[in-house]
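Report of the visiting student (M.T.), summer placement. My assignment was to run the structure pipeline on a short list of targets and document each run. The first record concerns Transcriptional activator protein CopR.
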Amino acid sequence: MINDSEYMSTSYICMVEDELNISDFVSRGLKDFGYEIDVFHNGQEAWNKLKADNRYDLLLLDIRMPGMTGLEICQHYREKYGYHTPILMLTALGTTEDIVMGLHAGADDYVVKPFKFAELIARIKAMLRRTQALQQNSLIYHDLTIDPSTHKAIRSNIEADLSVKEYRLLEYMMQHHGEVISRRQLLKDVWDKDFDTNTNIVDVYVKYLRTKIDDPFKTKLIHTIIGMGYMLK
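After the run finished, the structure tokens were exported:
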């Protein structure tokens, strides 16, 4: 039996499902538990909305959709926004191959149709709890997450093996993302040096970071601002 007070929430959910009986049933149930929900019956329409407005705390995606499949939406969403928003796939395709395809596309979990609403709501709550706990303890920018308590850095679900100083440099840049950070500032705040020693140690470590954080990925986050320093953007 589900405890209403335990599951009440104000999280905002996007559901993409073309079977009206399922979307209506799930939508009513989620609203009863305090969720806000937008429902789309066409994949392309859903993606057009998501491209313009990333307000959602969780996505529910049916795999087989007109306009654009749930797998395609998932892939595009991960490429644009990273891995911070949980994605739950709804599928009648319960084979191992189909499930693996969904997870490889970037989904966090799946529910096979037909499903019981109690199972769906339990999975949603568990996914949102994990995400909220991670966000409370972590620094997040784009698809990059670092955890100060463990000194772990993860980009697009891939953990980077950083040295202590590499981690400290990345943490500082994330704390000041969108700002130009001079080499002198980095020497002072990351290396505890109050003067310019004419060393290239900052450039060397930025190169190390790029190798681990940027080079494996299409989108680059660490940028050189000529004559000024560096910026994470």
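The longest strand covers residues 12-16. The first helix runs from residue 4 to 7. I thank the supervising group for their guidance throughout the placement.
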